[in-house]
Amino acid sequence: MIPRKLLFILAYYPAVTFSHENNALPQPSADALAVSRQLQALINTEIASRGGWISFARFMELALYAPGLGYYSAGSRKFGAAGDFVTAPELSPLFGHTLARQLAGVLAQGVPEIIELGAGSGKLAATVLEALAALGQLPQRYRILEVSADLRERQQALLQSVLPQHAGLVEWLDRLPEHISAAVIGNEVLDALPVHRVRNDHGNISEIGVTATEAACAWSTRPAAGALAAAAASLQLPDDYETEISLAAPALVTDLAQRLERGCLLFIDYGFPAREFFHPQRNRGTLMCHYRHRAHGDPFLWPGLQDITAHIDFSAIAGAGIAAGMDLLGYTSQAQFLINCGITALLAETPAADVARYAPLAAQAQQLLSPAEMGELFKVIALGRGVAAPLQGFSRGDKSRSL
Ligand SMILES: C[S@@+](CC[C@H](N)C(=O)[O-])C[C@H]1O[C@@H](n2cnc3c(N)ncnc32)[C@H](O)[C@@H]1O
Fold first, then answer.
1. Atom number of ligand 1 nearest to Cα 248
2. Would you state the pLDDT for residue 18?
3. 117 forms bridges with which residues in the sheet?
4. Which of 60, 152, 156, 189 is the best mutation target for the ligand 1 pocket, counting ligand atoms within 8 Å of the beta carbon and taking the most?
């Protein structure tokens, strides 16, 4: 299970390209392909109704979230060994247990609840609540906003089975509350929001969108306009350069900031500050697809059956939060954050002599912390209002100035 390692390689060696031809993807079942063909037909209909072209962001939204058919909306197994990729909470309970220490610190400041965005299988909620109960610092409520009805059902089933004594604390939201006093958390949620694609040729910015051929979708460019053109122009992209721009991720941060009365936003994801994200060598962007633990670069393959994702421009996230009046409370690597929050002490609670329990936990800690795995590529950013800084996770090695 090494998709994140592949992501890491692509991120640091942008000249490397992955294609499904040489990456030997396993063939989906006939049933799965039939669902994908239904989604392709829906996408083709939308493209036709819009004059033969849609933005890549709209394509990604349909491919991931079209009701009943999109990757996150349909019933396929996504996380873990039997799925397509592994996230930190799926990899190890140490992740949620360590994050809980940071959340306990925020709750101790009188912030009453936790809101989790995009809770996936529900494992992060389960491990965070388990650890907060052990610390005697349970929140008044743990609310989850999940766009996928299928995942919401899975979260409910998991929490009921592994944490029945605390399941009553958990509520599911249909939309963001108007007023928020909470620690809002999101692990690998920003990277699942739809992105636009742009191209710069000698200062002419085009938007790389999507058209339909008989068999599949294909790239198609046209002049960029509106907010996207303005965002691209402000980046002063190198010549002959293609990249992704997320309008949705900063917009989500702005929306949260407008509702946040007191508390913080903690986002964990893979990405860089703008200077690295838009590095001249990363001239074809960071778009990446995952299917059965293989990473490749063709988002038009089997719509609805594979994950599509792009790295995060953390400068844009920080900029949106600050512009909306929040404080930037910290930005650092996942490794530094977890170490600051005490992951090594947590690991040490299991005696090394108890090899059967200790060895797997130590291997998981290595994956979470190693610079060659998730430790450096993944970052943690905190923005907030009315919360005392520094937060424990950023007490050492804060890199806010790099944003
Ligand atoms: C890559 S998965 C990560 C899941 C989980 N946080 C984890 O780390 O395993 C992305 C999750 O975000 C959800 N999601 C995407 N857009 C969302 C939005 N606007 N609001 C809430 N959840 C969203 C998806 O349905 C999915 O549960």
1. 19
2. 42
3. 145
4. 189
CA distances from 222 to 59, 69, 79, 125 (A): 16, 28, 36, 43
Sign (positive/negative) of CA torsion 5, 71, 129, 188? positive
Residue 286, phi then psi, degrees to nearest 5? -130, 15
**Is the distance from CB of 384 to CB of 257 less than 8 angstroms?**
no
Which token pair is 359?
A: 């060895």
DSSP lists the bridge partners of residue 271 as 312
Which has more pLDDT, 342 or 2? 342
Average pLDDT of 297-313? 96
Residue 2 has what pLDDT? 45
- Tell me the one-letter amino acid at 372: A
Find, among 190, 223, 189, 202, the residue nearest to 55 by Cα. Answer: 223
Q: 303 pLDDT exceeds 70?
A: yes
User: Would the pTM count as exceeding 0.90?
Assistant: yes
Supply the pLDDT for residue 23.
57
What Å distances lie between residue 188 and 247, 269, 289, 310, 328, CA to CA? 17, 5, 14, 10, 19
Percent of the chain as helix, strand, coil, to the nearest 5: 40, 25, 35
Token pair 């005697």: residue: 136
Position 84 scores a pLDDT of 78
- For ligand 1, whether the C-beta of 64 sits within 6 Å is no
Instruction: Pick the atom of ligand 1 nearest to 307's CA.
Output: 1
CA of 272 to the centre of ligand 1 (A): 20
DSSP secondary structure, 209-263, as one string: EEEE-SSSEEEEEEE--HHHHHHHHHHTPPSSEEEEE-SHHHHHHHHHHHHEEEE
Buried b (16+ CB within 10 A) or exposed e, 257-280: beebebbbbbbbbbbbbbebbbee
DSSP state of 208: E
Distance (Å, rounded) from C-alpha 298 to C-alpha 295? 9
For the chain, percent of residues with pLDDT exceeding 90: 88
pLDDT > 60? residue 339: yes
Q: What does each C-alpha distance from 292 to 6, 59, 306 come to in angstroms?
A: 13, 21, 8
